[in-house]
Amino acid sequence: MSPQGAQLRSVGRSYRIPLPGLAALALGLVTLALVLVFFVVPNDANQGFSQRIFYFHVSIALTAYACFVGGAWKALVHLWKRDPLADLESYVAVHQGLIFGSLVLITGSIWAKISWGHWWLWSEDQLVLFLVLFLFYAAYFMLRFSVDPGPQRANLSAVYALFGVVLIPVSFLAIRIAKDFIHPVVFTRHGPSFGGWILVAYCVSQIAMLALAYALYRVELAGKRLDERLRGLREVLA
Amino acid sequence: MTYLRDVGALARKDLLLELRARDTLPAMLLFVVSTFVVFHFALPARSSQLAASGLLWVAIVFTALLGLGRAFVPEREQRVLDGLVLAPCDRSAIWLAKSLATLAFLAAAEVVALPAFALFFHGLNGATVGGVVLADLGICAVGTFLGAMAVATRARDLLLPLIFLPLAIPIVIGGVGASVVGSPARYLGFLALYDGLFALVCWASFEYVVTE
Lengths: 238, 212
Prior knowledge:
Order of helices and strands of chain A: HHHHHHH
Low-confidence stretches of chain B: none
Largest sheet of chain B: none
Strand content of chain A: under 5%
Shape of chain B: globular
Largest sheet of chain A: none
Order of helices and strands of chain B: HHHHHHHHH
Oligomer: heterodimer
């Protein structure tokens, strides 16, 4: 086999769950979560119907963190084992993280508007943190697409993705301590007393979001790999 | 101890270059004083002292950015970085030496900038100066690292502020906190934590930025 052929084969990797099955599972779980959230859980005593956005907002936020951490993990694997596929996986995970991160900003903004009458609240730690992360990871794409494809691009992206997981807790801490001088805490969210259907609905929507993110990740990865193979084939033919 | 000797030699090279060419430091000094004048007019009369304290941190971050943008220009123009990577020394020494040189420039700029701030706006307390020292360490450690990354890209000067500012937000929070609240110990501690954590990450991963 030619070296190019060997390289093409090494790009592939088999997964335990096939993609169509995974997509169907994600669809089913998201539907179940929607049914539970809209028809089963009771209205919140304080915020009424609008509190239902909590089930999506929080589970999307945790999913975005999972994507960023997954991206950093793949980045570490890349630096460690020099696996070109790990670089691609890291990029796709960060991309999904940015998409879910934007959704956190949008859902959080809607929730803030309905609950407190403002589209943006600097007193909301989660929103501010996601704004910082959004800026940070948006710059990841600027960085990545400003370097020609190759080992250097993979290295720079990987190191930057690793910075991200250090930045998340540091920013969280910073935003927490900033409250003392930026503004006093005015709103305290009543922690929903987790129990019964509320807990079930939350867990289902959390799992649904993770499954959705993973399915999207696999779809994007499959597309990117196909793209890479096609480019490899073109090079072989040229 | 060869490591420290390498760092010393590399830092000396940068300081010597600056002494002979005088590219960066005069620009930083002029920039920071002009920023203060701009801030004076940006703050309407009877604005609080707190607003001016906050703007001091804006000035520091942007002045540092100016210096960081220049940090790897000699390496890029003369292709020195290739030589340094080939040299038989630990790659992290390149980062450490460059950070120290940048720190020297930033500190020199602040020796002028802080008295100028006190003259134009209001006096500075010990906590603010302590915060500036701790913040400088973090800014130079992270900024130099990102500067080396930015110089490897096509966008170069354009990219550095984009990747640096999100990472500088915690520094600004810690610094402003230290200069405006009554008990600044928490904020100074946070800045020290930031410096330690990011210096460690930069030190451990610099090799991947300059090699393939």
